[in-house]
């Protein structure tokens, strides 16, 4: 029984960390957002990857994406999030993110989405 209570607390905490991270990004509070990630953060996305929290936040401070969480699931230190990401110019892209936590902070995450709407904008 004790292990299941601990597991539930860890799952709740992992979900809260990710949701708090996304909330800080939406508020453009990058100082607070950095508190939820490890310094050696690894990010992989459709349009590229970033290694290290400094590289990731340098891009995020410039892009200022907004996230509308549709659904999230927690399994231990892994959190899956379905969200719409507003990437500017009226482009809301349905996306899926897989976040992995270590020691209570986001160590890595991957985001996938259909990039065609973004590529159509670039080629026009």
Task: Give the key terms.
124 residues; Nuclear Transport Factor 2, Chain: A; 4 helices; 6-stranded mixed β-sheet; alpha+beta; globular
Tell me what you see in this structure.
This protein has 124 residues and is an alpha+beta fold. The protein has one domain (2-123): Nuclear Transport Factor 2, Chain: A. 40% of the residues lie in helices and 42% in strands. The protein is built from four helices and six strands, in the order H-H-E-E-H-E-E-E-E-H. It has helices spanning 2-26, 30-34, 53-63, 116-123, and strands at 37-45, 48-51, 66-75, 78-86, 92-102, 105-113. Strands 2-1-6-5-4-3 form a six-stranded mixed β-sheet, covered by helices on one side. Strand 5 (92-102) and strand 6 form a beta hairpin. It is globular, with a radius of gyration of 15 Å. It starts with a helix and ends with a helix.
């Amino acid at each position: 029984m004790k292990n299941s209570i601990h597991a539930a607390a860890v799952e709740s905490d992992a979900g809260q960390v990710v949701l708090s991270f996304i909330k800080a990004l939406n508020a453009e509070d990058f100082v607070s957002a950095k508190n939820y990630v490890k310094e050696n953060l690894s990010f992989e996305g459709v349009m590229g990857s970033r290694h290290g929290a400094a590289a990731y936040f340098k891009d995020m401070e410039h892009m200022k994406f907004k996230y509308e969480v549709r659904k999230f699931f927690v399994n231990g230190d892994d959190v899956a999030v379905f969200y719409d990401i507003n990437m500017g110019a009226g482009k809301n892209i349905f996306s899926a993110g897989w976040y992995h936590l270590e020691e209570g902070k986001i160590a890595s995450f991957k985001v996938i989405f259909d990039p065609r709407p973004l590529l159509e904008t670039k080629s026009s």
